[in-house]
Q: What sequence folds into this?
């Protein structure tokens, strides 16, 4: 197990390096630089001076190595669009709204989705089953900005129940949390249903019935335990959705979170911030898969016992 | 005549418009093995599930040791469950992958509140040994075993409650030839030693021949022939039974028989015909349609009874 984790962490490092090179090259291949976007163009000599201060006049490979040397010392530089603080500081305060709303969205959406999917599996072809299918299909196919628009229209414009924009007092959190919850809800409604049905159709469930075990105990002692493995293992990946979902959800609800910076840092050629954000997403991806794999190994006896396999 | 261990009377199962099992009569006498054979889709597995009351019958009765269990609720059924158990084909999916073999084998005891925890584990170990596995396997998980070993575990779990009736649904079909023989031997010795009655569902006639006392042939939900094993192999009457026998592979290529594949029309055309005086007992109903008739030597076959037999 330790060896497995060490190997995975090493491969994560490789992923980081590859991602950093690709993002670095992509960022710098976009025409223009950080000081070309202003309405009043800077004089060339001032621009050159600024470029020299930021080290942007050096060859690309040297810039990359300098940047990575900083990263190793956890120094991600200074965002061009907000020179008063560090990239780390900006991410730290901008993340609070994103993590709060996104995290609550997952914590509400996932359990609801699991319950819905379970109910659908246990009552096949009933109205619950159709509801679960509808929720799963719509939640995964309708883009989150359309869902957000719908939420604003229904709850803020028509019903006047909630404010139309997020953050601030908790009443404003409701709609963005609902928008964040859509994907976990839909994913789990579908996933819980299929994994439950998968286990329910196994002959060992028939054997348990033939032994006289009550249906309730079959579900709680056997089916859930088996169905839990795949359900738990997709859970960490939900958190990646906070980062990617924030781009749209926060734009729709005007939440001062991280989402806006994903776009603005590309727009403004804010190299240090964009690099840090992309590395953050790849770190979240890698970590979530690592945690998922560890959970899977801990929960599943097929892997747990010395890795002996079928 | 003693009470049969398991008896199905005119059992019928309909799924929407499809009749999976059509008025089947089946008797498993105490201490004997009845094989239910037929191609996939013939209704043999459904018949097994009906006997176990894992499926509710559309019509007909299930009798376990002479008691009608057809309309008991699952709760009322629980004590009867101890008398009848099942082994399925897929040995891996038949065992909960999250549990150790010891837990799996001991679980039925827990369900029926028999013995303390330690006692149940001891019994599980005993049963592991009875089915030819080492007692130390109790702490292992299903995936660590081979298919044959897993099927032994399924057998141990089925018999730990002291069941006298075993429904075995294709228990050897997923196994290698050599392993298959071991499992057949195990079932055979347990059957003799414990006086089990077994409904053995299979399409493998070579296994059936060595294990069964009586063979029941099903086709499209109907029983088309039923006879003591020797008679089926020596003197099959129904064209479908003959085709099944022809399909048994032989080792010697020169002795390989011509295979026959029969369509519905061909079977109808070749359905045997008997004159009433050729039968062991008069037909129950007077009809021109094929019906199950009694021949000498407890041999029943679906045939047409006519005044003049067509040779």
A:
């Amino acid at each position: 197990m330790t060896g497995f984790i060490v190997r995975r962490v090493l491969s994560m490092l490789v992923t980081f390096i590859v991602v950093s090179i690709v993002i670095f090259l992509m960022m710098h291949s976009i025409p223009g630089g950080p000081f070309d976007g202003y309405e009043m163009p800077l004089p060339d000599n001032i621009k050159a001076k600024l470029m020299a201060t930021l080290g942007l006049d050096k060859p690309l490979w040297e810039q990359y190595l300098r940047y990575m040397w900083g990263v190793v010392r956890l120094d991600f530089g200074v965002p061009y669009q907000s020179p008063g603080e560090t990239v780390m500081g900006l991410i730290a305060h901008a993340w609070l709204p994103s993590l709060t709303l996104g995290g609550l969205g997952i914590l509400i959406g996932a359990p609801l989705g699991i319950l819905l999917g379970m109910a659908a599996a246990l009552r096949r072809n009933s109205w619950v089953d159709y509801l679960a299918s509808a929720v799963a299909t719509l939640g995964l196919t309708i883009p989150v900005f359309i869902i957000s628009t719908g939420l604003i229209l229904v709850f803020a414009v028509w019903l006047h129940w909630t404010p139309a924009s997020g953050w601030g007092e908790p009443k404003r959190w409701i709609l963005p949390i609902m928008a964040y919850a859509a994907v976990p809800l839909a994913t789990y409604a579908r996933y819980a249903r299929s994994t439950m049905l998968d286990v329910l159709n196994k002959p060992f469930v028939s054997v348990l019935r033939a032994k006289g075990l009550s249906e309730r105990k079959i579900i709680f002692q056997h089916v859930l335990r088996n169905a839990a493995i795949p359900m738990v293992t997709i859970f960490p990946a939900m958190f990646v959705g906070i980062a990617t979902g924030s781009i749209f959800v926060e734009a729709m609800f005007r939440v001062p979170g991280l989402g806006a910076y994903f776009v603005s840092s590309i727009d403004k050629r804010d190299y240090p911030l964009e690099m840090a954000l992309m590395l953050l997403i790849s770190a979240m991806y890698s970590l979530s898969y690592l945690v998922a794999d560890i959970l899977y190994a801990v929960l599943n006896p097929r892997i747990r016992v010395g890795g002996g396999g079928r | 005549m003693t009470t049969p261990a398991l008896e199905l009377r005119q059992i019928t199962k309909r799924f929407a418009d499809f009749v999976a099992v059509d008025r089947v009569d089946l008797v498993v006498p105490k201490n004997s093995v009845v094989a239910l054979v037929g191609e996939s889709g013939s209704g043999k597995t459904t018949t097994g599930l009906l006997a176990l009351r894992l499926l509710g019958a559309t019509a007909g009765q299930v009798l376990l040791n002479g008691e009608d269990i057809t309309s008991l609720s699952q709760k009322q059924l629980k004590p009867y469950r101890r008398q009848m158990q099942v082994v399925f084909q897929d040995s891996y999916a038949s065992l909960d992958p999250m549990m150790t073999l010891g837990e799996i084998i001991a679980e039925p005891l827990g369900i029926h509140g028999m013995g303390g925890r330690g006692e149940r584990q001891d019994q599980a170990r005993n049963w592991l040994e009875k089915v030819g596995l080492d007692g130390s396997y109790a702490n292992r998980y299903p995936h660590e075993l081979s298919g044959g070993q897993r099927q032994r575990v399924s057998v141990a779990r089925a018999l730990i409650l002291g069941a006298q009736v075993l429904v075995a649904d294709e228990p050897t079909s997923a196994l290698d030839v050599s392993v298959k023989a071991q499992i057949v031997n195990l079932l055979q010795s347990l059957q003799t030693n414990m006086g089990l009655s077994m409904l053995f569902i299979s399409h493998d006639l070579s296994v059936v021949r060595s294990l069964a006392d009586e063979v029941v042939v099903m086709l499209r939900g109907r029983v088309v022939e039923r006879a003591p094993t020797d008679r089926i192999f020596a003197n099959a009457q129904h064209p479908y039974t003959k085709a099944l026998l022809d399909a048994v592979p032989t080792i010697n290529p020169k002795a390989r028989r011509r295979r026959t594949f029969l369509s519905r029309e061909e079977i109808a055309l070749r359905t045997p015909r008997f004159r009433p005086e050729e039968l062991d007992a008069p037909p129950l109903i007077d009809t021109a349609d094929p019906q199950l008739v009694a021949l000498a030597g407890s041999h029943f076959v679906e045939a047409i009874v006519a005044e003049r037999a067509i040779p």
Chain A has a mean pLDDT of 85. The interface with chain B takes residues 202-204, 206-215, 222, 225-226, 300-302, 305, 308-310 of chain A (CB under 8 Å).
